[in-house]
Amino acid sequence: MSGDKTSQRAAAIASKALQDPKSLTSEEVQTLAASVLSQPANQGQQGQQKGQSQQFQGQPQGQQKK
What we know:
Helix content: 55-70%
Distance between the termini: 47 Å
Structural class: mainly alpha
Mean pLDDT: 76
Region (Disordered): 1-66
């Protein structure tokens, strides 16, 4: 499937970007942008909500760091 190859390539580029952002070529930046923009809009929001609920898990309400 073409999407699988694109996803693997985008993941590899994202990993490279985290290690050395200045090493990305303009083509790699475009690939990452296209990958992000091709995701369903609600997919990112669901992941973000899960991350937020896990981030504060275990802390009593009202006791979060300021």
